[in-house]
Amino acid sequence: MEIIEKIKTNKSIDNQTEIQKICLDKLQSSPLPNPRSEQWRLSNKSKLSNFLDYSVNENNSKFDIPYPKNSQSTIRLIIGENCQIKLIEKNYSIRQLSEDELQKYIKEQISCFNQNENWSDLLNLSLSCKNNILGLKINGSKIPPIEIFSYASSNSLNAKTLIIFLEKNCNVELLQVNLGKENSSLSQSTFFCLEENSSLNHGVVSYGVNKSNLLNSLNVIQQKNSEYNLGSLHFKFNYARFEIRIKQSEGNAKTNIKGMQITKKDEQISTYTKIYFDGPNGFLDQINKSLADDKSHAIFEGSIIVPKIAQKTDASQLSRNLLLSNRAQIDTKPQLEIIADDVKCKHGATISQLNEEELFYMRTRGITLTEASKLQLSSYFQEIISFIPVSKDRWNLLDKLLNEN
Amino acid sequence: MQSKMKESDPILEVENLSASTDNLPILKGVSLTVYPGEIHAIMGRNGCGKSTLSKIIAGHPSYTITNGEIKFLGENINSLEPEERSQSGIFLGFQYPIEIPGVSNLEFLRVSTNARRKFLNKEELDTFDFEELVKEKLEIVKMDQAFLSRSVNQGFSGGEKKRNEILQMALLEPKIAILDETDSGLDIDALRIVASGIKRISNAQTGIILITHYQRLLDEIEPNYVHVMSDGQIIKTGESDLALELEKKGYEWTDNFIKET
User: Fold this and answer.
1) Is A85 in the same domain as A7?
2) Closest CA to A12 of A52, A55, A48, A42
3) Which residues on neighbouring strands pair with residue B76, listed in sequence order?
4) Closest residue on chain A to B177 (Cα)
5) Is residue A192 scored above 50 in pLDDT?
6) Exposed, middle or buried: residue B31 (CB in 10 Å: 0-12, 13-18, 19+)?
7) How many CB pairs under 8 A join A and B?
8) In chain A, which residues have their Cβ closer than 8 Å to the Cβ of B81?
9) How many domains does chain A fold into?
10) Best CA proximity match to A223, nearest among A279, A183, A286, A275
11) By CA distance, what is A386's nearest residue in B?
12) Hey, is B67 helix, strand or coil?
């Protein structure tokens, strides 16, 4: 684990920023997460080690965007490609955060970090150089859809950071695309702050190719009357970990999450979510789907935390899983921690296989077993894909999942 | 089984068929022959093996044929996959049509129709041509076009599901249709629509097997033969008046036949 050796000695990374220094210091004493901690116990150690084996690459190779922009109105940004943006229009403005604003915000975040829980963020911020941090402040209305790309170059470890402030009464549609190249590791940390009455429809689509790895961490703070909708899809990674931490800081906010991970061959993809209600009248509707084939491993661990202050919380968390092979493995653990006494919370998990009666029905209509399975899977995928905003049709996600994956 | 001599070759021949699931015998030597233009009714108590027989003819993978054979147009089809049987012209109308959320009815119907057309060496239909064809067929079962844009059978009432089955039969133009309790859960009007649809689709070249509990469907579609099943066997075969007698006397009357056999 080349990078861990560097962190231990903390000498080889030159020209460190203050943030990098703080994070490296934090990591130096225990550079790896505790493998026995709840957040990491199921994580494949050798795959994590493989993630950390690549050299850190601060320079970004040329990136070929997989799809052309279909609409002039879509704003497309690529983290690491010196994207300078300052859009001040009649109804809205998008501007980059200043160095000071970024430093201040990140330092605040780091001060709340827990070594195991935020290890992915600590690693990201210790490696992410100035060029690879994109900070935006958005306000206004009628904002065009935004696409933001992160990618890793082959044979290297790239760290990218995204920080977005949505100011009051602002509505945004944002698709975040994380792409892995062959033999690469991408560390992506994202921080959103949704101010009062703002709303964000957020899509996260992450897919790789051979031996791509991903550590994807998402941190959202929702102020009152804000709404955060997340549709996410992770597939084709040798090792991927999606961590979602959402805090409704004053309650009275809405969160909807529909996520899916698809594993094949010997891949391991996991999703960890922690939704914290720090005020009353919070709302959460979450569904996480996993599909595991061959000898792969899919993991979901979700926790909903409802302290005493969070009365009248209404939260639901469901984990639905499809096991397509006898050798595949799915671990799922939705859990509730409730202190408040006047709440409506539910959670559940199911693991099943393709429905044989549905398959037989389709086959009696002349549809082959392969096609019938695809139809059934497409119906399983649709619920999640339809929740991903911004030009999802153009991305042919369903086709990618059914035919390319 | 049939006494009449037939001029043409049979469509379906089930010969001394025995089958089991999880080592539990369900069918115990069923024989049945259907010639073109014939309508057969199969009646019997719940659990006597009627639906199992229909599923085995359609190729359900959960059942194992332990003895006998199924011949379709003279060929043994025991080892054919369900889709191969369907493509070659065997249609099973389900007692409980399956809901497939997220799959549009129109696309489902198009894919299955094209699978059959491909087998028949007919040109496959694109979405536009298929819409024209399906509009024609919708009229047979008095269905609204809105059903096409919904997911397969999802949110359909019992009657709508059964009409959707007959719509599929109309599109696939099978050589033989086995309709498993198509009349169950239908009100009088829906029953008439379904029955009239079946009559319009069937012709002198096709065969139909109606699995039913009630005379009311047979009032609408008069069968040439009525078979009574019990404990995995056909214990009596007669003409349409057998169903009337059964309606009058109940299945207890057929217990005497079991004693006799």
Assistant:
1) yes
2) A55
3) B71
4) A364
5) yes
6) middle
7) 73
8) 363, 368-369
9) 2
10) A279
11) B102
12) strand
User: B3: pLDDT confidence band, cut at 50, 70 and 90?
Assistant: very low
- Tell me, yes or no, whether A208 and A272 share the same domain: yes
Q: Which residue of A has its CA nearest to B59?
A: A364
* Contact yes or no for A364 and B62 at CB 8 A: no
Closest CB to A364 among B86, B101, B151 = B86
The residue of chain B with its CA nearest to that of A381 is B102
Distance from CA of A316 to the nearest CA of B (A): 22
Same domain flag for A216 and A228: yes
How many alpha carbons fall within 13 Å on the CB side of residue B50?
27
Rounded distance between C-alpha atoms, residue A240 and residue A237, angstroms:
6
For residue B259, what pLDDT is reported?
57
Residue A378 is nearest to which of B97, B102, B116, comparing CB atoms? B102
Residue A175 identity (one-letter amino acid): L
> Quick check: A380 and B108 CB within 8 A?
no
Same domain, A253 and A363: no
Kindly state whether residues A170 and A272 are assigned to the same domain.
yes
pLDDT of residue B5: 44
Q: Quick check: A379 and B102 CB within 8 A?
A: yes
Q: Most confidently modeled of A21-30, A87-96, A140-149, A273-282?
A: A273-282
- Minimal-distance CA residue of chain A relative to B117: A366
Optimal mutation site among A355, A357, A361, interface B, most CBs of chain B within 10 A: A361
d(CA A164, CA B64): 61
Q: Which of A361, A366, A380 sits opposite B116 (nearest CB)?
A: A366
CA-angle at A122, arms to A187 and A271, nearest 5°:
55
Provide the shortest C-alpha distance from residue B62 to chain A (in Å).
Answer: 9
Amino acid A72: pLDDT: 66
Residue type for position A37: S
Sequence-ordered alpha helix ranges (H) in B2-79: 50-58
| pLDDT, chain A, mean | 90
Location of structure tokens 């096609």: A371
Helix extents (H) in A52-118: 99-111
Phi, psi of B42 (to 5 degrees): -115, 125
pLDDT, average across residues B33-45: 95
Q: Which amino acid is at B230?
A: S
pTM of the model: 0.82
B62 with A379: Cβ contact below 8 A: no
pLDDT, residue B87, reads 97
A356–B103 C-beta distance less than 8 A: no
* B49 touches B26 (CB < 8 A): yes
Distance CA A111, CA A117 (A): 13
CA distance A323 to chain B (A): 19
Q: Do A364 and B59 touch (CB under 8 A)?
A: yes
Between CA B14 and CA B170 the distance in angstroms is 24
Residue A164 and residue A268 in one domain: yes
DSSP A354: -
Minimal-distance CA residue of chain A relative to B169? A365
ipTM: 0.94
Residues A163 and A268 in one domain: yes
CA-based nearest distance B176→chain A, Å: 13
Residue bearing tokens 């009432």: B157
Domain that holds residue A370: 358-405
User: What local confidence, expressed as pLDDT, does residue B194 receive?
Assistant: 92
Neighbours of A275 (CB within 10 A): 24
pLDDT bin (cut points 50, 70, 90) of residue B137 is very high
Looking at the structure, tell me whether residues A319 and A373 fall in a common domain: no
